[in-house]
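SMC-Scp complex subunit ScpB, Pseudokineococcus marinus. Tokens?
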Amino acid sequence: MSEQEPAVGGDGRPPAGEQEPDAERVPDVEDLPGGARAALEAVLMVVDEPVDEASLAAAVRLPVDRVHALLVALEDEYAREARGFELRRSAGGWRVYSRADLADVVARFVRDGQTARLTQAALETLAIIAYRQPVSRARVSAVRGVDVDGVVRTLVARGLVVEQSKDPATGAMLYGTTPSFLERMGLASLDELPPLAPFLPEGADLEDLTEGQL
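Tokens:
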């Protein structure tokens, strides 16, 4: 056996102790509590737009036909048990949505939540989006130094931020502020935005925001 060819077992995998790094870090989803169904649900709970079966299969490391069968089973299960949410096929992919017949309840919650004060994390995120729009969540995360997915979803739910377009280079969703944001800030246009510095996390680079590095 040449030095360039690693040893493999009878199943084509490297012997114990010589597994690939990824294989050591990512467990088999079938061995996790809840198995593959739970793994798929976990992924579906964090996506912001429909995800195709091939991408889901890659995430949970299962064949596409197995993932398709699991998705159909989950779709049927949620509908049969009258959950507050449903799994739907949309735009060539799958995504979890609140049930259509509960839209009034959800809308009332969102409207009532408008009066709640924004957290410091939300203020920081909103300020970065306002000054650098259109901007992706990844770019905002880079400035804040933390994941902002949940905060952005909150801002969208409150009508302060909206999906504007997709980055033609990366395909990432780009976000910007809404007319409601201007109204709540008491501004006629974005040109009247106040200085950004007081809203930024400590250590954030102002040059990244003012010179278009985001």
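Residues 87 and 96 are 5 Å apart (CA to CA).
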